[in-house]
Amino acid sequence: MIDTASQTKSHTWIEDAQGIVFGTFMCALGLQFLTFLGLVTGQTAGLAVIVSYLTGWPFGAVFFVVNLPFYWLAWQRMGRIFTVKSLISVTLLSGMVELLPAGLTLAHVTPALGALIVGALTGAGLLALFRHGGSLGGIGVVALYLQDRFGLKAGYVQLGFDAALFSVAAFLFPPSLVFYSLLGAVVLNLIIAVNHRRDRYIAT
Q1: What is the DSSP-derived secondary structure letter of residue 110?
Q2: Residues 47 and 165 sit within 8 Å (Cβ to Cβ)
Q3: How far is CA 179 from CA 63, 123, 161, 185, in A?
Q4: pLDDT tens digits, residue range 113-126?
Q5: What is the pTM of this model?
Q6: Counting beta carbons within 10 angstroms of the beta carbon of residue 198, is it exposed (0 to 12), middle (13 to 18) or buried (19 or more)?
Q7: How many Å from the N-terminal Cα to the C-terminal Cα in the chain?
Q8: Tell me, what's the pLDDT at 41?
Q9: 3-state SS of 118-142?
Q10: Is the CB of residue 145 less than 8 Å from the CB of residue 138?
Q11: Axis crossing angle, helix 13-37 with helix 43-55, rounded to the nearest 10
Q12: DSSP assignment letter at 77
């Protein structure tokens, strides 16, 4: 039997770069479906979406600002490299969500299918970011810290925060919208909970 632990090695900077770009692009693409359907999502992205809907402010700018307080925790608990990668990821996503509509126009997507697409795309995107040592800041930082420090699964931590966020959204948006939004969030967080396993993933 091969001892995989002895073969563990770090990603190169090129591998990290492509992983971060891929992850942020997948999340940005998922957000295009989400905003087209008028859905909301979880974590700090969900908070930024709600603020953007209610105020009309650009999502990218709101998302960037909402994440600023969490960088202190990232720096203190997760390290300089993780913090820098997360800042780069948030900045890339903030720009991508503003640029994608110029090249992508959606005409018709059913809410149920759209919710599944949002969950799958953003789940895959976040998984790529986590595996390359980054995040989209906010609750993702807290979730990763709790998983590494106490063994709590990051996906379940995020799902708990999302439940609180959607409880608030239930008072602001129609029930059907909240239901489909919650469906997408469940898909996203289950992808993270099942697949983000440091004991299974060799390269870090």
Answers
A1: -
A2: yes
A3: 23, 18, 16, 10
A4: 999 999 999 999 99
A5: 0.81
A6: exposed
A7: 22
A8: 82
A9: HHHHHHHHHHHHHHCCCCCCCHHHH
A10: no
A11: 40
A12: I
CA distance 120 to 166: 19
The distance of Cα 95 from the centroid of its chain, to the nearest Å, equals 15
Question: 10: phi > 0 → left, psi -120 to 50 → alpha, else beta; which?
Answer: beta
Q: State the chain's mean pLDDT as an integer.
A: 84
Whether the CB-CB separation of 15 and 132 falls below 8 Å is answered with yes
| Closest listed residue to residue 101, CA positions, set 193, 32, 38 | 32
Token reading at 145 = 């810290």
Residue whose token pair is 């087209």: 36
Angstrom distance (rounded) from CA 132 to CA 134: 6
Structure tokens at 186: 């469940």
